[in-house]
Amino acid sequence: MKQYAGWARCPGTCGEWVQGAKDGVPFLIGCPISRYAKAKAKIWLPELKNREVGLDKRIWLWRLPPGKNKTGQALKLFARELKITNFALKIEMDSQLAIGKGMASSTADMVAALGAFAHALGVPWEEEKIARLALRIEPTDPVMFPQITEIAHQDGSYIKQLGPEIKAKLLMLDWGGMLDTEAFNARADLGEHYRKNEPAIRLALAHFYEGLAKKDLELAAHASTISARCNQEFNPKPEFERFLSWVKAQGGLGVIAAHSGTLLAGIFPVDLPIRAQNNLLWEAKDQFHPQMIEWVETCQGGVEGGVADARR
């Protein structure tokens, strides 16, 4: 047996810049932030001449952290695609992403684990292939792509990378509760909600595309505010209008929401001084009484990783 080891990390999100439907196709544009899921993989394989063992052999040892069933499904799909089935695997994971809040926690877990697996074995990393693998398990955020990406998140009918991130500081609040992404996307009234709001979402998209092209955070924030307000009738956030008014009164540019989660964030320029950030955090805590509040920053998506302590 030979041991291989690798690590990877993948960012989560603070909701979505825009989410809705166009021409009846549900889509979203993810908003990656500098909060990560990280995975370490240790893999024990037979000698290389015996690696092509065929799909009739069982995967004979798995060790994953409790509750990572979707990650396990993704790893098994990936291993079968590589035709590697007779091996032992141990995955260790650590995450800064809260579950059920709209931070893409399960997608980031899957992508980080797949990245660690791929780095350990030195196999090619293809973002679109990983996205389509994840889509076989659940509706998926496009955190595996390095650029801001628009994706038909339910069926993968299209994936479009739009460009580098727009830098921003986000004052992220949560008032509690959890929301299951699969249950959200299975709601019978979701299609009607999307159809009703298509004109507003098209307007939001136009603003976002222009903001991305011009690196104009104000336009992007206007787009996300339109989309977040549309989401209010379907997945309302407490204090939405009052928080939006407060953000703008404090020099912010708008809000971004977790459309299938519980988070709401104010959008501020990336160069906002630390002192101002501290003052705004404490004022927001006093006025809106969230269960969680913190500053985060937008970042590039994609996977970082490498080989760790591998014996080849």
What does this structure look like?
The protein is 35% helix and 28% strand. By secondary structure, it is of the alpha+beta class. It has a single domain (1-312), classed as Ribosomal Protein S5, domain 2 (2-Layer Sandwich), CATH 3.30.230.120. The strands form 2 sheets. Strands 1, 2, 3, 4, 5, 6 and 11 form a 7-stranded mixed beta sheet that branches. Strands 8-9-7-10 form a 4-stranded antiparallel beta sheet. A hairpin with a 5-residue loop joins strand 8 and strand 9. Helix 1 (69-81) runs parallel beside helix 2 (105-121) and helix 5 (190-214) runs antiparallel to helix 6. The protein is globular. The model is unreliable at 48-59 (pLDDT under 50).
Domains, number: 1
Count of distinct strands: 11
Beta percentage is 25-35%
CATH topology: Ribosomal Protein S5, domain 2
Write down the overall mean pLDDT.
92
Runs in which pLDDT lies below 50 for 5 or more consecutive residues are 48-59
Q: How much helix, percentage-wise, in residues? A: 25-40%
SSE order, as H and E? EEEHEHHEEEHHHHEEHEE
Q: State the helix count.
A: 8
State the major sheet.
7 strands, mixed
CATH class, named Alpha Beta
CATH architecture: 2-Layer Sandwich
Q: What gross morphology would you assign?
A: globular
Distance N to C terminus: 11 Å
Structural category is: alpha+beta
